[in-house]
Amino acid sequence: MTEPAAVTSPGVILSAANDPPNSTSKSGFRAMWESWTSRVFTMREDRFFLFLAVLIGILSGLAVVCFRIAIEWTQIELLGSSLSPTFPRVVLAPTLAGIAVALLVIYAFPRARGSGVNQTKSAVYVSNGYIPFNTVVGKFITCALAIGSGQSLGPEDPSLQMGAGIASLLGRRLRLSQEKVRLIAPVGAAAGLAAAFNAPISAVLFVLEEVIGTWSAGVLGAIVLAAISSVVTMRAFLGPESMFRVPPFRVAKPADLLAYVALGIVGGLASLVFLKWLAYARPRIQSLPRWTQHFQPAVAGLLIGIIGIRLPQVMGAGYPIIDQAMHGQFTWKLLLVLAALKILATGISFLSGTPGGMFAPSLFIGAMLGGAVGAIEQHFFPALPGTVGTFALVGMGTFFAGFLRVPITSVFMVIEVSGNYTAILPVMISSLIAYGISRSYIKVPLFDLLARQDGLVLPSVEEQREQMILTVEDAMRVDAALVLERTDQIAAALKSLEGKEGLLAFLRVRPGEWNFVEHSELQRLAADTSRGHAVEEANSKGPLPFVFRDMSLEEALHWAGDWPALPVLSRADLSKLEGVVTLDDILKAFRKVPIA
Amino acid sequence: MSSPANTIVVGKKTPRIYSREAVLFGCILLLVLFVLFTAGVSRMYHKSIHVLADNWFDQGEASFRAGDIKSALTDYRNAMVYSPDNAKFQFHLAQALAAAGRGDEGRSYLLNLLSESPGSGDVNLALARIAAHKDLTSDALRYYHGAIYGEWDNDPIVRRWQVRRELAEYLLDRGLQRQAVPEIIALSDSTPTNDTEQLRTVGNLLLKAKLWTRALEVFRTILSANANDEDALLGAATSAFNLSRYNAALDYFDRLPEKDRNAPGVDEMRKTTRQINDMNPFLPDLSREAKARKAATALSVAASRLQQCASQPGRSPASPTQTQLQKALAESKEPAPDGSWQNIAKHPETVDEVMGHAFEMENAAAAACGEPEGADRALWLLGRSQGVSAQ
Predict the structure, then answer these.
(1) What is residue A13's three-state secondary structure?
(2) Chain A contact set for B105 (CB, 8 A)
(3) DSSP-derived 3-state class of residue A514
(4) pTM of the predicted model over 0.95
(5) What's the confidence (pLDDT) of residue B322?
(6) Do A4 and B38 touch (CB under 8 A)?
(7) Can you tell me the ipTM of this complex?
(8) What CATH number is attached to the domain comprising A389?
């Protein structure tokens, strides 16, 4: 075997495989292997990263396929194959499974608690991308048991964490640079989520919106590749069908969109209720004595089982029930009851510390609310286009946007899970309304809130998104510069500067080349009365770096300290001075912005 | 939270460092094994859920056949959990929902299926039935036509014929005669002449649509194959009666078995036909005296009906029917040629004039006092068949 590869600057990986091959002592296979590895390992690290992203995507896809099958089989074994489990099973399965899950989480997989999104995010920002593989195994077993036994949780967030865990393991074992190890966890997260949702675009957007928080070009390619390869892998085993099937519809008149405004309001309010409840109850549950953690998942299972006696629809991830709601199988009253009970059941499951995700339950709640609003509206306005199913579909995106505060992801998610593009306009409208309502009354998004409750201060993507970006325009002064030509006479220049406090003199050497001329220098030359001096004879500072009025102030800050002032030029004409900006101006502009 | 990867914990064994090639080789090996494992697991999984889906579906079919729609719905839904894209399951669930009176719920599944296979005859038909049940006529028409021109797996010609028949019946039931007529005519044209059952169905639809001539043709076709077909005889008799071919109608009525002949509606029609023939002086091969007797009787029957009608109280004197009645009454009282049969027999050329007068009186009375009965009805119908109609 060859020696370990060495990482050299700038990101080129060298390997012993580069050494001249000793062809006489190598078998054909070994020669082939070495030839291949030499090609792989002499790639630039960013290309190798992309190759790795595909590998991670395939591995995550396979893991998610096994995970979904495990959940399904667990459900069949524990609850039976019917949608309405029999009485003893419906109560006993989640209760007993709850005990097993609690013991596993406490004694074997302590990092498997929670949904998985924040754990992945904290791995990126706190642990340099480190996610122990034990967490992946723990998440797989405990979530399969919990969701399969009827706990009201979903498989998507755990899939995200499993993907991140696989990626983290690979990154560490392949000894990528620290930066790449940190970035590889989100790549795996996107792969896991994409396979779980059968929705690569949404997964990419979610990871960018919620986990990384920036649209970094360096990692975007890897994330997209991983998401695509995981979805392709998953589809190879579980089929290409989209999650839900809703007949296409058409919004005939702009006024029809008003129907979705109402849905946006209802979805926003419901997401508020859910968020408020979680925010209120979670610290209280966490403050209970530690020994109660042994029973919390079992108690949650028991309560959900009791609900399940009458309404088994609220148990588990609930995808078949969402499908039924989309086909108008429930009355609006039942839809409302199911939405309310799902909020209750999901809260109970989540607060008990049972591992499992919030994505599927939030889709469930949104679908039920959407269906109910649609049925009520269609009762009063029978000519309204679309079916109850359409409203259920739009409702999913609406609640998702309000609850998880990922408006862009929610729009694409609806399109991807239904394969239906006709809903895009209604989803955009109602999602934005729900997001606005949720944002107005609860400042901190769910995952940030949970992180803060756990004592972690992770960067808030929403806050970053809403931060004001200052530009040079915000700091520059327009009438603070005197433009001098090379042939201008010093005396005339001084006369122009006379009595104008703070006016700065710039010498236009040629378009794009500007120098700064100190007043003292002009005065020095003016003192020599033997002959008339031109400005070009002055000792000017330059050429100055120039800025444009639309450039970010942070960029301008890089140069401002080194020069007395920076010229702000027109992008269309580099000989035209539009203003001037100094370090002082920039600092003043920054100080004016309120701190979030 | 988690500890960084590169932290060395005192007392713990540091992990062994492998080369990248080794790790990558291990990964690829693991990937291959993982693919094989997942393929095996997924094959087992698919097999087991297909079995489950089929079991639930079979159970649903059994419940549906037994008339237990509620159980059938549950079973079909359970089947769909394990095979959500199965078109057959969705179709049966939709049909069960429709059978349970929840057509709206079934419609959603059917629309979904229709979006995938817009030409499906079965799906279009199921949607048409739901629309028809909800009285959404334009939707029903659209889907019925979709089914008629759609694809059918088995016996497409027969299935299309059946759908068109169903559409025609639906339209006739809704009183949409105008839309029904082209469908029935198309149905009639596409019916094979050797299929008595289909001909009989078409004949009855033609009768309902009052397409008497076509109906008579269809029933005659049946009778040419089986001269004693009771339904065909009755249909032919009814058609002939409505076409005022009373001789032919009477012939068909007389060929009916006694039990059919004496059936309430049939008996009345037969008696009327017989009376019409009894009062008809225009029948061929009648002697001058017989013609004169029939004409005289007709005149007397009509005059008596007119008198009786005019004496009924409570009619508005200004109404057009009343004016017509008064005019006819006045004409009947005018000094007229002797209406006795002897006189008519003497002047056989007056038979037409006498009968015309009788028909006008019957028409006037019918317009003022409603459709007549018995001999008056026979005379009135005879008048209509001779081209004398109410003004």
Answers:
(1) strand
(2) 327-329
(3) strand
(4) no
(5) 65
(6) no
(7) 0.77
(8) 1.10.3080.10
Residue of A nearest to B3 (CA): A127
Instruction: Collect all residues of chain B within an 8 Å Cβ-Cβ radius of residue A320.
Output: 77, 80-81, 84
Q: Which domain holds residue A10?
A: 6-34
Yes or no: say if A474 and A441 are a contact pair by the CB < 8 Å rule: no
Q: Which of A54, A321, A329 to mutate to test the interface with B (most CBs of B within 10 A)?
A: A329
Report how many domains make up chain A. Answer: 4
* Residues A134 and A152 placed together within one structural domain of the fold: yes
- Give the closest-approach CA distance of B71 to chain A in angstroms: 12
Whether A507 and A563 share a structural domain: yes
Which residues of chain A carry a pLDDT beneath 50?
Answer: 1-24
How far is A485 from A482, CA to CA, in rounded Å? Answer: 10
**Pair B378, B294 in one domain:** yes
Contacts of B182 (CB under 8 A, 6+ apart): none
Q: Would residue B390 count as lying in a domain?
A: no
Is there a domain that residue A249 lies in? no
Helix (H) and strand (E) counts in chain A: 24, 8
Same domain, A276 and A423: yes
Q: Are residues A120 and A215 in the same domain?
A: yes
B82 close to A (CB below 8 A): yes
Please list the ranges in chain B whose pLDDT falls under 50.
1-11, 335, 389-391
Q: Return the residue in B7, B8, B20, B107 with the most chain A beta carbons within 10 A, the one to mutate for interface testing.
A: B20
Whole-number pLDDT of residue A307: 96
Rounded to the nearest angstrom, the minimum Cα separation between A206 and chain B is 23
Contact between B41 and A66 using a beta-carbon 8 Å cutoff? yes
Residue A406, classified by CB atoms within 10 Å of its CB into exposed (0-12), middle (13-18) or buried (19+), is: buried
Question: Which of B138, B136, B190 is CA-nearest to residue B163?
Answer: B190
B82 vs A contacts (CB less than 8 Å): 81
**CA–CA dist B334, B300 (Å, integer):** 15
User: Residue B317, SS3?
Assistant: coil
A40, A72, A247 member nearest B112 (Cβ): A247
What residue type is assigned to position A425 of the chain? L
The reply to whether A489 touches chain B by the CB within 8 Å rule is no
Whether B21 sits inside 8 A of A17 (CB atoms) is: yes
Tokens of residue B61, six digits: 């079919």
Q: What digits encode the pLDDT tens for the residues B116-135?
A: 889 999 999 999 999 998 88
B244 shares its domain with B268 = yes
Which residues, including other chains, have CB under 8 Å from residue A71's CB and lie 6 or more apart?
Answer: A143, A144, A147, A148, A155, A317
